[in-house]
Amino acid sequence: MGAVKSKRVPRAVREQQMMDAAVLTFARRGYRAASMDEIAEVAGVSKPLVYLYLNSKDELFSAVIRRESEALVAAVTAAVEPGAPADRQLWSGLKGFFAHTTENPDGWAVLHQQARTQGEPFAREVAAMRAEIMTFVTALIGAAAKEAGCDGELADREVSALAHALVGAAESLAEWVNTGTDEGTSGERERPAPRDTAATLMNFAWAGLGRLIGGGRWSPEG
Amino acid sequence: MGAVKSKRVPRAVREQQMMDAAVLTFARRGYRAASMDEIAEVAGVSKPLVYLYLNSKDELFSAVIRRESEALVAAVTAAVEPGAPADRQLWSGLKGFFAHTTENPDGWAVLHQQARTQGEPFAREVAAMRAEIMTFVTALIGAAAKEAGCDGELADREVSALAHALVGAAESLAEWVNTGTDEGTSGERERPAPRDTAATLMNFAWAGLGRLIGGGRWSPEG
Amino acid sequence: MGAVKSKRVPRAVREQQMMDAAVLTFARRGYRAASMDEIAEVAGVSKPLVYLYLNSKDELFSAVIRRESEALVAAVTAAVEPGAPADRQLWSGLKGFFAHTTENPDGWAVLHQQARTQGEPFAREVAAMRAEIMTFVTALIGAAAKEAGCDGELADREVSALAHALVGAAESLAEWVNTGTDEGTSGERERPAPRDTAATLMNFAWAGLGRLIGGGRWSPEG
Amino acid sequence: MGAVKSKRVPRAVREQQMMDAAVLTFARRGYRAASMDEIAEVAGVSKPLVYLYLNSKDELFSAVIRRESEALVAAVTAAVEPGAPADRQLWSGLKGFFAHTTENPDGWAVLHQQARTQGEPFAREVAAMRAEIMTFVTALIGAAAKEAGCDGELADREVSALAHALVGAAESLAEWVNTGTDEGTSGERERPAPRDTAATLMNFAWAGLGRLIGGGRWSPEG
DNA sequence: CATGAATGAGGTTTCATTCAT
DNA sequence: TATGAATGAAACCTCATTCAT
């Protein structure tokens, strides 16, 4: 088992192989249950080499979190058109997000399921990345409000809450869409295209936000 | 550390003490990192007693998941008014959800962060509970559509997606609202009341759904 | 599971019930693997009661060894006719031995398989019983030699060796005839009668010993 | 206690050292009472290394049983002269058996006392080895009968019984001869030579069998 | 007479990590 | 660059045994 043995590989390449193996193993087993033995075997190298390059399980996990976080942020960032209106930026960002998580489910699982649940310092690292995205989304919502001319009517706190709701909705959909009949040989439920998932979420969110921004309010007394 | 020592307690009581300790410890450390030693110490009993009553770490975790799942579903169920219109049911359900997760953050953390990431069979148990809630929300969205007279215009798959988005948004808000300056003795950021969180989410969601149901659609080409 | 609950039983009776349960459990599981929990459950009493009457696992095991040893020696002793010729005494003793081990296989298993393999002090207790039998057999062989008029031609050491060989042969046969298709519902191999097993061994042994000693052929009818 | 520390030993060598330590410890304490801690200490290595190489206590015990069984069968097999008459084959086989068990008393104790009393699957492994020897002995008895021209007069079942008696006698003698004043520094009772033990048993057995079969007297000098 | 409640001690097993080559 | 050999520490779990009622 494990990758094909190939000797004398440059360090940078070997490190990536190890991190690929780590992503796979952490996603499958969880941080604690994943053993360095298994990671080394999946990577096709000996355990001491993993330690030589990545120093410790903690540092390996941190490195994985960093790499996957940066890849996700890069994918989303690359997808948005900087100068476009807020709604278009959100739309393209969501497309990028769903595309990346669909193509890279193990990396997403490590970030979303594992890193966040392992306490400090890992939770902080992924929280920082999430905060970055949250800031971006918060800014977009603020910008949209401004574009609609309702500047100041939404408290900062409320805008933050909306951003959290929106990001949470996206995460939930990403998990729903990419989870499921993995091993089902027959009847493999086809996953919706990232574009369709993004459209569904935009419809849900934007119509709501549009109303909010435009004045229509639901009320508990209603 | 550890609860006050109280000797010779009836089994049923001790079991609840142990499960309380387990919820606390699993929430703090995660399933794998929580040791039976620590759980026993927090419960104020010896380790063998934990095994005598709860049999194994796996069974203890399962018992915790079951207890917390049922408590959450009961809280939400008790909050909704069965005969009311869909929007009112959703509103009261969300209030119940945020109230319960705010009062019981450790239980929620075990369900949402730990159980879902520990693979089979734990993930399945929470998934079943989540599916129950998802079914309820899905039915409410369908009912709302029917009340608005747009029966059939939303595909089942799309209604499911909207339910997943809504539940994900609620989960994200629950985490956001209840997380944070736990240890900060001073400057304790005040948590919003469950009612306000529910209202924010209802505004976000319902205005959006209202638009959708009423016909207004955001479009990527727009 | 376990015996029917019957309260307020006199101590002597309860002790026998417990020892019966212990024999069964020690035979099934071995000394170390048998737990006091299981013994108490099989006996139909609570664990503290076992300790109240039998004091400890070691003492319980010792008591079992003593009881079963005495029962075996008593069975063999009761079978032999004290004044008869040596060959008849051996023949009747073997019949008694095979009859007792066939009727009481668990007790025999505890003595032969468990007690002898658990080191001190248990091995010594059963060794003492075995030595008693060995002394008896040695005396019989000596007596037979004297009866045949070849007194002194066999060294004491050789007579002892012959006794060990004979007893070992008997033990091997006892295990062979009583072991086997326990659970086989169909095709239950019928066990030979103790009398036939004894006859086979007597023919094997006595013809050999008779030749060695110089005497005539032994026969069960003789 | 513990062997001399020798670091960085090849795996094959270490495995044999561990199995030697295991034989010693299982023989002294019994399977259950022997702890992996003690085995590792006797072997002069740390416990994890024992697990790394032998996987578990069960597998270690099985490996020991296999090694000692094969050694015993090999010793007996190597001792017999294949083409010789039945009595000579039995004689040389017994010499080989007593020589091996005398030289290797711990291995014999593990096979005869421990493995057979630990239930499945260990009992089965040693039972298979014993059955192999029993088959060999049974064949020899049958061959001797044929050589003496009394083919068919002994029922198969009776021949089997005789083989069991003979093997049991040998086992009993092996235990008697090799047991005893182990720790007695002074007055160490001298053990009889394997050759003498074999001669005693042959005289006991063959004279008996010879009479039964109708043939002449067996003699080690013959 | 009898038991539900409770534990100290010790068992097997795993794992992150290092050393010597 | 790369690895076979080795271990300290700690995890889960069991069991003989006792106390208080």
Automatic annotation (TrEMBL), chains A, B, C, D:
Keywords, in A-Z order: DNA-binding, Transcription, Transcription regulation
Organism: Streptomyces halobius
Stretches assigned to coiled coil: none
Annotated DNA-binding residue span(s): 35-54
Transmembrane domains' residue ranges: none
InterPro entries to which the protein is assigned, alphabetical: DesT_TetR_C, Homeodomain-like_sf, HTH-type_TetR-like_transc_reg, HTH_TetR
Ranges of residues in domain HTH tetR-type: 12-72
Keyword Transferase: no
The protein, known as: TetR/AcrR family transcriptional regulator
